[in-house]
Design goal:
Layout lengths: L4 H32 L23 H34 L10 H12 L6 H14 L3 H13 L2 H10 L2 H25 L2 H7 L19 H40 L2 H4 L6 H13 L6 H11 L4 H10 L5 H10 L2 H43 L1
Helix pairs in contact: 1-2, 1-6, 1-9, 2-4, 2-9, 3-5, 3-7, 4-5, 4-9, 4-14, 5-7, 7-15, 9-14, 11-13, 11-15, 12-13, 13-15, 14-15
Length: 375
C-alpha cells in the first residue's frame, strides 16, 4: 500500500525543522553549557543570560518584569520549535490510523524515543505534548515525550556524569527512569484510567482529523493541503499555549525573586525546608540544563546535599507551565498526581543523597584520624 503523500510532506517539515534547530541553536548551545559546567555565571534567576541586567537597587516589581522578559527571550527559540513540532505531530497523527500500541510500557518507550532527542526544556516540550495528545496519541507516549526531553538528552546526561559525584548522578537517573518508564505507564493504567481510555480510542481526538487524501493526489496538491492543515494546527496550538506560557513566565519570575534559592539553601535543613525546596523546584519554569548548572554552582557554594539533590531532580523535570497544559488538555487529576509524585520522589532522593554524603564524610574523617594516629 502506498503511503499518503501528505505523510511524506509533514515528515519532511519535521526533519527540516529539527535539523535546523538542532544544528543552528540547540546542540551548540548545550555544548557551550557543558563546557562551562559549574563555572557558568547565571545572570538571571530563570535564565543563563540576561538581556536586561537586574541591579541591586531594583525593586521587586522591576526584578519580576526583567526576569519575565529575560525568560521569554531565553525560551523564544525553544518555544517556537516546540510549537512547530507540536503542530507537525498533531497533523501527522491525524493522517495515520494506528496511533500507538496496546501496551502502555511500549507506548512509554516510544515517547522516550521521540522526546529524548528534542533537546528542549519541559516548558518547550509542553506544546509538543499537547499536539500529540490532541491529535490522539496514547497518554503514556504524550507524557513520556514531555518528561524525557529535558532529562534524558545526551548532552544533559553527559553533563551529569562530568559535573557531579557518581552517587548523585545514579540517584538522579534512577529516579528519572523509574518515573518515566515505570510510574508513568502504571499511573496511566491504574490511576488515570478515564484519561487513558480516551487516548486508546483511535476515533477520538481534540482536533478533527484531516480528510483522507485521494489515492491519485498530486504532489503539489498534497503539499498545499498539508501546509494549510499545518498552519491551522499551529494557530490552534499558539492560541491555547502561548498565553499560558506568558502567565507561567510571570509566575515563575515572581517566585524566583520573592523566594530566591540562593537564600533558602543556606537555611538549616529540615523536612519543611526540603518540602519548600521541592515545591519551588517543581514550580519554576527553567530552561534546559539550567537545573544541572545551578545545582553544580550551589554545591560549590556549600549548599546542603539534601537541598542540592532535591533540586537536581525536581528543577527542570516539571514546572508550572506544563502543569497548566496537562491540567487543561488532559485533566486536573493527571496534573496534580504527577506533581505530587515528583515532589515525593525529589524529597526521597534528597534524603538518600544526604545519607550517602554523611556516610562518605564519616569514612573520610575516620581515615584521616587513622592516618594522624599512625604518624
Amino acid at each position: 500500500m502506498r503511503i499518503n503523500k501528505r505523510i511524506w510532506v509533514i515528515c519532511g517539515v519535521i526533519v527540516v525543522t529539527a535539523v535546523t534547530f538542532w544544528s543552528g541553536s540547540r546542540y551548540p548551545s548545550l555544548g557551550e553549557k557543558a563546557i562551562m559546567g559549574g563555572s557558568a555565571v547565571l545572570e538571571d534567576p530563570l535564565s543563563f543570560e540576561a538581556s536586561i541586567q537586574i541591579q541591586t537597587n531594583d525593586g521587586i516589581v522591576e526584578r519580576v518584569v526583567y526576569t519575565t522578559i529575560n525568560w521569554i527571550e531565553t525560551n523564544l527559540e525553544g518555544m517556537a520549535f516546540g510549537l512547530v513540532i507540536g503542530a507537525c505531530l498533531l497533523t501527522l497523527i491525524g493522517l495515520i490510523s494506528v496511533r500507538g500500541h496496546r501496551n502502555g510500557f511500549v507506548n512509554t518507550v516510544i515517547g522516550v524515543a521521540v522526546g529524548a532527542p528534542l533537546g528542549v526544556c519541559v516548558n518547550c516540550s509542553a506544546p509538543v505534548a499537547k499536539g500529540m495528545h490532541d491529535g490522539g496519541a496514547r497518554l503514556e507516549t504524550t507524557l513520556a515525550t514531555m518528561f524525557s526531553s529535558p532529562s534524558l538528552n545526551i548532552v544533559v546526561l553527559t553533563m551529569l556524569f562530568a559535573m557531579f559525584p557518581l552517587y548523585l548522578t545514579v540517584i538522579k537517573l534512577t529516579l528519572t527512569l523509574t518515573f518515566i518508564l515505570v510510574l508513568v505507564p502504571l499511573l496511566s493504567r491504574w490511576v488515570f484510567v478515564d484519561e487513558r481510555v480516551k487516548t486508546y480510542d483511535d476515533t477520538v481526538c481534540a482536533v478533527t482529523p484531516s480528510v483522507a487524501a485521494l489515492r491519485d493526489e498530486s504532489v503539489g496538491s498534497a503539499i498545499r493541503a498539508t501546509l494549510q492543515l499545518l498552519g491551522r494546527n499551529l494557530g490552534y496550538l499558539v492560541i491555547r499555549t502561548v498565553p499560558l506560557m506568558l502567565l507561567a513566565g510571570l509566575l515563575g519570575a515572581i517566585v524566583a525573586n520573592v523566594m530566591p534559592l540562593s537564600v533558602l539553601i543556606h537555611s538549616e535543613p529540615t523536612l519543611l525546608a526540603v518540602v519548600v525546596i521541592a515545591l519551588i523546584g517543581i514550580f519554576l519554569p527553567v530552561p534546559v540544563a539550567f537545573d544541572v548548572v545551578l545545582v553544580a554552582v550551589l554545591i560549590s557554594a556549600g549548599a546542603p546535599m539534601i537541598y542540592s539533590m532535591t533540586l537536581l531532580f525536581t528543577l527542570g523535570m516539571f514546572s508550572i507551565y506544563p502543569f497548566f497544559i496537562v491540567w487543561k488538555s488532559i485533566s486536573p487529576r493527571v496534573a496534580v498526581v504527577l506533581t505530587a509524585v515528583l515532589i515525593v520522589m525529589g524529597i526521597a532522593g534528597g534524603y538518600v543523597a544526604d545519607g550517602i554524603y554523611v556516610a562518605e564524610l564519616q569514612d573520610m574523617m575516620q581515615f584521616l584520624e587513622q592516618e594522624a594516629s599512625g604518624d
